[in-house]
Write a structure and sequence with these properties.
Number of helices: 5
Shape: elongated
Distance between the termini: 39 Å
Order of helices and strands: HHHHH
């Protein structure tokens, strides 16, 4: 269960990389993906996995034999809605970040890609 949970959390950065890669390739600016890579790694990977770990903590403790059943069952009951809300919050932060950091024109993309 734990492995599948973390793999599900990894779907966000994977999907974004695939769609962004397709978009920038079709736009003829594959170097633009390098500009977005740090943002993807920090927000969609690190922040998302850290929050997922925090939500899954009581369940992981119980599965490892070091935690009690009652907090684990409570966390398990609430895991799906909380994980969904967490992913929405991460997506909102990522969207705002992308809006604020994305260059406004193709010439900005060229400069940004050269500086990477």
């Amino acid at each position: 269960m734990t492995k599948r949970y973390y793999l599900a959390l990894l779907a966000m950065p994977t999907l974004d990389l695939l769609l962004s890669g397709l978009f920038v390739s079709l736009a003829g600016m594959p170097q633009a993906l390098l500009y977005r890579l740090p943002e993807i790694l920090v927000i969609l990977l690190a922040v998302n996995l850290a929050g997922g770990w925090w939500l899954h903590r009581p369940i992981a403790r119980f599965l490892a034999g070091t935690g009690e059943a009652e907090p684990a069952l409570t966390a398990l009951e609430r895991l799906a809605p909380r994980a969904g809300a967490w992913c929405l919050m991460v997506a909102a932060i990522f969207s705002i970040s992308a809006f604020l950091t994305t260059p406004s024109s193709c010439t900005d993309w060229s400069r940004a890609a050269r500086s990477c």
